[in-house]
Design goal:
31% helix; 4 helices; alpha+beta; single chain; 17-stranded mixed β-sheet; 288 residues
Length: 288
């Protein structure tokens, strides 16, 4: 081999080495930040397995943060880094909202939960009462009872036994009541300081908890025995059929009735401080 051939060979070899070094430099090098993506994949998998909503949302948000940090470290990706980061944030935000929605639906389907104030405005007052601004209001169909003193507030009672009352609970107020089946003995729903427990027996045909402030219970005969809506911290609305030993109180949107030792029909009535009390001696209503 001549010297000229040696020189050509060496030049070709150097070119090959240079090209190999260039390719090696362009090749992706694993950085410690890339391990954040692996951790985010693990967190995402855990989130899909878990049913605890706060834990799931926390895993999704942590995954999004870790992936964005990993992508940001690759400066050679240029503007693609920002596009990828925005896409990751949008994706995990959607997953978090979806997890929250499913968590709420799962909670509303439980046979027991808490009733919370909805923060809504009061419905129109169809009575002739002028309601004091600081009064607690119980809307019974188109009638109304209001209380200005200190709780507890007793709205329904039979033979001096409280049946529907409101009392202090922490910094707010809480509803307590028992709803019975037609026999007057079987408890269909018990609400104890805003926490309700619905019977799982065959006496209940349907229980609807459409939001955290509303509970609707239908008995096996298709009759709505309770529809309670916690309007706001100072107002609640109820309709339904309340059966107690010796007394049945029916409340709908347009009128109500009390049937026991005596019978009383009410429509757009207004009661102050006491509400409805029925017993063997008759019916007593709050000051009108």
């Amino acid at each position: 081999m001549s010297r000229e051939h040696h020189r050509q060979y060496d030049a070709a070899l150097q070119r090959l080495r240079a090209e190999a070094e260039a390719i090696q430099k362009q090749a992706h090098k694993f950085k410690w930040q890339d391990s954040l993506t692996l951790v985010s994949v693990l967190l995402t998998a855990i989130a899909f397995i878990s049913e605890e909503t706060p834990y799931v949302i926390g895993c999704f948000l942590a995954s999004a943060l870790l992936i964005c940090l990993s992508v940001r470290s690759h400066k050679d990706w240029g503007w693609w880094r920002y596009g990828i980061s925005v896409s990751v944030i949008v994706l995990f935000s959607f997953l978090s909202i979806r997890a929250y929605t499913k968590g709420v639906q799962r909670e509303l389907a439980l046979p027991e939960s808490d009733l919370l104030p909805a923060g809504e405005s009061d419905p129109p007052n169809r009575t002739r009462c002028a309601i004091p601004a600081n009064a607690f209001r119980i809307y019974a169909g188109d009638s109304l009872a209001y209380y200005t003193g200190e709780p507890p507030y007793r709205f329904l009672s039979t033979n001096d036994v409280p049946r529907f009352s409101v009392e202090k609970h922490g910094n707010g107020l809480a509803i307590s009541t028992d709803v019975f089946a037609e026999d007057g003995r079987t408890v269909l729903v018990r609400i104890d300081k805003n926490h309700f427990i619905a019977s799982t027996s065959g006496e209940i045909f349907k229980r609807d908890h459409p939001d955290k402030s509303t509970l609707i219970v239908t008995d096996k005969y298709g009759k709505i025995v309770l529809n309670v809506h916690y309007i706001n911290e100072s107002a609640v609305k109820i309709t339904g059929t309340f059966v107690y030993p010796g007394t049945t109180i029916s409340i709908d949107e347009h009128e109500g009735s009390i049937r026991g030792a005596a019978t009383y029909i009410f429509h757009q009535d207004c009661w102050m401080e006491i509400g409805i009390s029925s017993g063997s001696t008759g019916i007593k209503l709050g000051h009108q």
